[in-house]
Amino acid sequence: MNYHVELKKIIAEIPEYIPNEFDHKIKNQTQFYIYGAGFMGCKYAELLAENGYQIIGFFETNCTSPGALRYQIPVFPVTYKDALVIISSFAYFSQMKNMLLQNGFAEANILSPFSVFEKFYLPKFEGIIDDFEDELSKQLVLDKIKYLTLKPEMKAISSYFNFSIFEELSDEVFVDGGCFDGETTREFCAISNQKYRKVYCFEPSKQHCELIAKNLEGFERVEIVNKGLYSKDAILQFKDWGIDQWNAVDDFFMGHEWNGPNFPYQIVKVPVTSLDLFFQDKPVEDYPTIIKLDIEGCEREALLGMKRVLNTTHPKLIICAYHKIEDFFELTSTIKELCPGYKLQLRHYTDTVLESIIFGYFPE
After folding, report:
1. Which of 269, 233, 273, 226 shows the shortest CA–CA distance to 251?
2. d(CA 196, CA 178)
3. How far is CA 15 from the centre of its chain?
4. At what angle do helices 3-12 and 135-150 cross, to 10 degrees?
5. What pLDDT, in 10s, does the model give residues 190-201?
6. What stretches of 245-326 show up as alpha helix (H) in DSSP?
7. Per-residue DSSP letters for 307-338?
8. 356 by DSSP, 3-state: which?
9. 3-state class of 25 per DSSP?
10. Is the entire prediction scored with pTM above 0.90?
11. Which of 202, 173, 209 is nearest to 188 (CA)?
12. Which residues, at least 6 apart from 94, have a Cβ–Cβ distance to it below 8 Å?
């Protein structure tokens, strides 16, 4: 199958698709409004700012406090009819476009969400198709694009360790980065028949560390490390949603706002470290042979902090690639840049956009 041809077929299904709409409509303008201040609106604002464009404000249909800030950007009702405006929602694009037209906006000044996606994201998605080794991985890249733009269900596959690179495990050192409640460690211990050398459970939340200790009581050779994984030693601010929820680095992951502004959390400070620093005084035979990262948007930073480990023992990798849109393509290139030679495969574990996992192995 020619996956690049198949990608063009997906694009042809996009409602009201205009080829190269972004470049065609903006011309020399660099200032925009974004209609919709939710998750995608935030991501588009961040992306456009990184590329030299200025976001004047968000539009909201039911704006109750004009001028109030969201993500440090003011929110306004649907006015300013001469403005260039980008609609941020794929699901409600038609309704939002009609609202703008009814309020006097010119169609030439209205950009679809796919215009930004095509300009800034699509080339990167297309660029990673050939980074993966197998046909299923390549198909899942297409499925991810289709989900983000057309919203069909993703095709779910089985669990983390039901994968060919884990068929024979012996004397492994497993790093569970983002251990949460210990479930993945329990699964690893089961599939390895307890024949592992050591497990390190990294978890920044003290509450979760207590839960891990309870859930892994009786398991031998398991060390719980009350730190997050990162590119260096530091103290970071985390958003903490409590014992039954995840945590996220406050500086990185505005995407968790999809839970709504009234979803309660606390800002806490937690220590983080890198795997290179953690293992620097340990013998090479104690370096990890399997590393799992599910750390809510810090996966790339953690990879940058394990270059020596990657190049020393070539551990098998289980890297979550769904916390941020850009993770999907940035993580593959980061792995290959840090340690050329890694083979990568992609799997997906739910029928939503969540739980896409990059598996890496180094052919010996």
Report:
1. 269
2. 19
3. 26
4. 10
5. 888 888 999 999
6. 275-278, 299-304, 307-313
7. HHHHHHH--EEEEE--SSTTHHHHHHHHHHHH
8. strand
9. helix
10. no
11. 173
12. 15, 16
